[in-house]
Amino acid sequence: MNILAAITREERKLEKQLSKLNSQLSGVRAAAKALGHSAEREVVGAKKRVLSAAGREAIIRGAKKRWAKVLERRPAKQHRSRFECSPLVSLPIY
Q: Which domain holds residue 8?
């Protein structure tokens, strides 16, 4: 396969795509011109949302309330003495 021929084929294909995109771009520009200056505005990012202190407190209170419900449904842990052995630990018999 001739590399030079492959490169020229790829070049022709890219030029064809470029001409198609240029025609689409001119169509979009014509539509924008027909709409007037309203289409020329820049797209601005979304404004950063700020949460008030009262709103933040309400969210915290709600989260604590939900966690309290979850924790009250759980069975209470039985606390062992720190010197008590775990039932899984067996001492060697001599």
A: 3-38+48-72
**Contact yes or no for 39/31 (Cβ under 8 A):** yes
Q: Let me know if residue 65 belongs to a domain.
A: yes
Q: Where would I find the beta strands (DSSP E) of the chain?
A: none
33 found inside a domain: yes
**Contact status, residue 40 vs residue 33, Cβ threshold 8 Å:** no
Identify the three-state secondary structure at position 38.
helix
Confidence (pTM): 0.36
- Quick: pLDDT tens for 39-89: 556 667 778 889 999 999 999 999 999 999 988 888 777 666 666 655 555
Specify the number of domains making up the chain.
1
